[in-house]
Amino acid sequence: TENDNSNNITKSINITCIVQGHIITNTYRIRKTSQSMIN
């Protein structure tokens, strides 16, 4: 069961990385859009 535990931890870390990546990408996109609106 120790192996299962570490697998679950790895999975949740991967999910966190994916989610953070999406947030960073979205923030970047929104910034670009608002900048072009101002210009």
Structural class: mainly alpha
Compressed to H and E, one letter per element, the order equals H
Q: Count of DSSP E strands?
A: 0
Oligomer: single chain
- pLDDT < 50 stretches: none
Q: Major sheet: size, sense and barrel closure?
A: none
Q: Estimate percent helicity.
A: over 70%
Cα-based radius of gyration, to the nearest Å: 17 Å
Strand content: under 5%
Number of domains: 1
- The tally of helices reads 1
**Tell me, what's the shape?**
rod-shaped
Global mean pLDDT: 88
Describe the structure.
The chain is mostly helical and 39 residues long. Helices cover 95% and strands 0% of the residues. It is built from one helix and no strands. The mean pLDDT is 88. The N and C termini lie far apart (57 Å). The chain is rod-shaped. It has one domain.
List the helices and strands and how they pair.
Elements (H helix, E strand, L loop, with lengths): L1 H37 L1
Question: How would you describe this structure in keywords?
Answer:
rod-shaped, single chain, mainly alpha, 1 helix, 39 residues
In short:
The chain is mainly α. The chain has one helix and no strands.
